[in-house]
Each structure stands twice: as structure tokens, then as C-alpha cells.
Design goal:
two-stranded antiparallel sheet; globular; mainly alpha; about 450 residues; about 75% helix
Length: about 450
Amino acid sequence: MATSFSFYNLTANSSCPCKIGDTDLGTIITDGFLLVLASATVLTNLLFMLTIYFNRPLHTYTNQLLVSNAAVDLLVGLFGMPLHILKSLQGNCWQGGVNFCHFTQAMDIHLTTVSIFHLTGVAAERYFRIVRVYWYERWIKRLISPMIVLFWVLPAPSTFAPILGGFHQLNVFTRFVNGTFVNSRIYIEEWRNQCGKQNPSERYCRCAFWASADFTLGSTIFQFLLPSLVMIFFYARIFTVAYKQAKDMESLRVSVAMSSSLSVNSGESFSTDPGSPGITSMATRRGSRHALLFSKDIRVVRLCAVVFLLFLLLWTPYFVMMILEAYCVGANYQTDSQILTPTDAERKSQRDLARGFYTAVWLGFINSFLSPVLLFSLEKNYRNGFRLMLHRKFRRLAVCLKITDPRKRMSGLSVRRERSMSSATNADSAIDESPTGGGSRGRFFARQESTMSLS
């Protein structure tokens, strides 16, 4: 055991045997594209946060959660993506030390967990807003801000604490690998990962995440599987209630239409006066207002559900590969000879497996870029808020980019609306000045006078 500790210290203080910068042209081009993607991730999330901040009508409870989630994605683009690009450009030859390596790994897992907790919070907020309205008005609206703070802090005991403390590797080194170090006269007996995949001399040179099966399974269930199941339940319940309410509203509309047709056939007259009986009663107007608000809520629910499905689609491959890694399934397992003296085919297989993990990680990172893009592309209010924010705070940039001011469009719509209303008023006044007295009342008396003359 003493030999093992001396080996750890010597390896930690000596230079890594891998070659820095030993990368091909394809890797450089790929990492250059990924660097552009990281910059775009920071920019899009920053623009989304500024759009919500500078537009007071967008200060809703759902948008508070989405802005906090955008801050998570911004940190992913600012720190997570560049560190992975740096490791790739260095040929995965880590020179930052063990502690900093563990910190970057903990930060990756923490930000991923915080993001999925925020998406769970969005689903819960929409659920109580539509399904449990009383609870929403009574409790949920007051708990949004504390929930956001909790989402940022809650994953820390399961991310930073075990990884920085080294507890995530308890019971992971369950297999001996016999090898030589320095010269053939010194033999060491080194504990290795149960799936292999790492030469003992590269223990402190490869900043790769190794964790025990228990830690990997527990973190996957707590940080990904359970929140995903909760969100699936919330959205399924929301759409079930929405479908039921849509059917009720449709039946109400049909009944109102039938009652109006029966009233017309019976010869009753209707007025647009709010105090008069008819179709435009107070109950009908309240029902229309409720239907409008409900349709807006459902539109927001659909948008949030699409964001959740995108997250689920892009992060599932990573967690599946982590489970396979922890339980040594398929190509993850390697024998001692494959670790210490691999052949060219075995080296190629190891590189392919590493590329698979790298691709799975970046699929998850792409979600941080696509989420704000999806929000802007699917929701008109966000697009108008973005244009308005540019014209208010960055007018020269908006003019240079030829972005139209939504206020001018709204003023044009209001002018056209006023013109249509004035034309309708002129038509009504012309009817009022007619000899028959005008309006429905005038037409009624005209019919009575014609009947009397005929008799």
C-alpha cells in the first residue's frame, strides 16, 4: 500500500506523458465550430434575459423561471463548453491538476441538474396555474422566488460535495492491474476502475469522469429520471384538463348559438347594450374572457413542453452512456492487457468510445443554445419584446440591422382600427338620420307602418 501512495505522489508531481497539442486538423476545425457555438450560446441566452428584464409585461412567474434557466445555460456556454474545447485541443492531456479537474466535473453536473430542476419548476407552475388554481393563487405565486434559490442550491450536496471530496469514487476501484513503473525492477499493484479504460500512468493526466456504479445510478435517478417523470406527469395532467375544458367551452358555445337562433326565430330583438338581455350577457362575456385567458395559458404550456422535450431528447444519450459506463456494459469493459499494452485496433476502439462520450456531452450542451432560440421562434411576445428592447436600449444597432419597431406596427394597427370604428359610426349615424328613425328600432317601426298602410 505504501508503494501505491508513493506512486500517487510521484505521478501527481511529475509531468504527464501525453503530448499537448497532438491534434489533427479535423479536431481543430470541429473545436473551432464548437467555440462559435459556445459564443452563440452566451449571446442568445443573454439576449433572452435582457428581453425579459426590459419589458415589464413579460415579468411573469413563468418567465422568472425561464430567465433563471437562461442564466444556467449562459454559464454552460461561458465555462462548461470552453473547458471541454480546451481539453480536446490539448489532446485530452490535462495540465490543470486534480482539484481543478474535479471542480470542472462538479460544475458540469451541477449546472445540468439546476437546469432540469428549473424545467421541473416551470412544469409545476403551469400545473398549479391551470389544474390547481386555488393553490396557485394562495401559495405557489409566493413561492416562485424561494424555489429559484432552492433550485440553485439543492443539487450542491450531490454534485460539489461528493466529487470535490472524492466520495464519488468509493468502491469504484475493485480490480487490480499489474504493471511496471520507471523500470522493470519496480512493480506496483494499482487499483483501477472496474471497467478499465485508463492506464495507471495517465491517472492524473486525463481529466475524465470516473465514478462508482452506486454514485452514477443514484445521481442519474435523482438528477434526471425522477424530475423527468414528474414533468411528464405534470404535462400529461395539464393537457388532459385542457382537453376537458376545451370540450366544455365548445358545448357552451354551441348551446349559446342554439339559444340565439331560437330567440331570433321567435321574433325577439337583440341589442348591443351591455345591460340588455341577449347574447352579450354578462355571463357570456365572462365565459369569453375565461376562454381567452385559458387559451393563453395553454399556449405557454405548449411552449414549455416543447422546451422540456428538447432537453429530454438531447440529454438522454449522455445519461444512458453513463449508466452503461458504470456497469461495464458492452465496449466499456477492457482487460488488463487492453489497458497496459493495447493494440492499434484496441486504441482505435478506445478513441471511438471516447468520441461517443464527447458527442453525448455536446448533444446536451447544444440544448443550452437551442432553448432560447426555440423560445424566440415559437413565441411572438418574446420576438416583439426583443425588437422593442433593441429600439429602446440599442437603437443604432436596431437601425443598422433593419429591425422594425413593434410600436410603429401597433400604431398602424390602432389607426386602422380607429378608421374602421369611425366608418361604422358614420354608417350608424346615417341610419339614425333616416326617416324611419334609424337602427333596429327604426326598422321595426318601418315594418309596423307598412303593415298598417296595407291594412
